[in-house]
């Protein structure tokens, strides 16, 4: 009987911890999100400032200490997240789980790679700490609405990207036939690169058509580029308006699989069937 009560008490504490860490509809959850956002911003700022030479030379030791404080805090948070979900491995391999791991792993790896020959690797690992900024996404309600809209419109976007890929291959092949290697278009892949740069209206200018026909084709590609830019914007905008016109997106996160995007009145997870 005592074992049952202890198990029940442990389960209740786990659910309470899950509510604080993963939910944003409760006062405790909002406080947790706010504090964590501040810590993330501070940690990313420290990493960025530490890359400035004169700041690193003057405050390098302080930056190092602060970095370890942030790393320990994020490590505790990561462990708590794994401990309060029903499927820790599933969360650990999810997008946010990987981001959480990247927020702490570089600091520990840098300890195991001492010596001048590893300085370049350590520098890369330090830069990886910037991935902490991605942790901000899961604490912003509007970002959840956007992610829901992107998920709903992903098939249309895939079709759109496939269409764009087809166009740049066609335009790249045409400009290769028109201009040729003598004008810088040495291969079809390089010509496709030109088509991508031109269609997206980036225009690096490293290669440009010299013939009249080539310049005419480039003009058509540029004009088409402006029309194409509006297509994904329209797709996502329609999806976002649909999401907002429906009931508000719930911040409820499944305690078992850590998935979100449930209806506000949902009682069970639509992904794994666990009780919310």
Summarize the structure.
It is built from ten helices and no strands.
Question: What keyword list fits this structure?
Answer:
276 residues; Helix Hairpins; Four Helix Bundle (Hemerythrin (Met), subunit A); mainly alpha
Q: Average pLDDT across residues?
A: 79
Number of strands: 0
Name the structural class: mainly alpha
| CATH architect. name of the largest domain | Up-down Bundle
Give the CATH topology of the largest domain.
Answer: Four Helix Bundle (Hemerythrin (Met), subunit A)
What is the fourth-level CATH superfamily of the largest domain?
Answer: Voltage-gated potassium channels. Chain C
Shape, per Cα inertia axes: extended
Q: What level of helicity do the residues show? A: 55-70%
Set out the fold topology.
Elements (H helix, E strand, L loop, with lengths): L1 H21 L4 H24 L2 H31 L4 H5 L2 H17 L7 H10 L12 H12 L1 H26 L8 H12 L12 H34 L31
Report on the architecture of this protein.
By secondary structure, this protein is mostly helical. It has helices at 2-22, 27-50, 53-83, 88-92, 95-111, 119-128, 141-152, 154-179, 188-199, 212-245. It contains ten helices and no strands. Helix 3 crosses helix 5 and helix 5 (95-111) packs antiparallel against helix 6. The two termini are 26 Å apart. The relative contact order is 0.09. Mean pLDDT is 79; it is low at 1-7 and 115-120.
């Amino acid at each position: 009987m005592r074992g049952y009560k202890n198990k029940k008490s442990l389960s209740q504490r786990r659910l309470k911890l899950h509510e604080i860490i993963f939910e944003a509809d409760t006062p405790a959850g909002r406080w947790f999100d706010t504090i964590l956002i501040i810590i993330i911003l501070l940690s990313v700022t420290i990493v960025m400032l530490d890359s400035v030479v004169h700041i690193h030379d003057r405050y390098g030791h302080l930056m190092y200490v602060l970095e370890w404080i942030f790393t320990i805090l994020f490590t505790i948070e990561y462990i708590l997240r794994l401990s309060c979900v029903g499927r820790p491995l599933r969360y650990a391999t999810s997008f946010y789980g990987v981001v959480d791991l990247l927020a702490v792993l570089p600091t520990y790896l840098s300890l195991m790679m001492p010596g001048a020959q590893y300085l370049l690797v350590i520098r890369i690992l330090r830069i990886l700490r910037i991935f902490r900024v991605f942790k901000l996404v899961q604490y912003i309600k509007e970002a959840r609405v956007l992610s829901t809209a992107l998920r709903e419109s992903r098939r249309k976007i895939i079709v759109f990207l496939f269409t764009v890929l087809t166009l740049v291959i066609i335009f790249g092949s045409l400009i290769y036939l028109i201009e040729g290697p003598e004008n810088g278009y040495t291969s079809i892949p390089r010509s496709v690169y030109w088509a991508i740069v031109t269609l997206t209206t980036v225009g690096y200018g490293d290669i440009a058509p010299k013939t009249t026909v080539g310049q005419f084709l480039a003009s058509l590609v540029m004009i088409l580029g402006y029309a194409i830019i509006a297509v994904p914007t329209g797709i996502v905008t329609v999806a976002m308006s649909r999401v907002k016109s429906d009931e508000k997106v719930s911040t409820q996160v499944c305690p078992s699989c850590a998935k979100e995007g449930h209806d506000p009145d949902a009682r069970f997870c639509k992904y794994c069937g666990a009780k919310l």
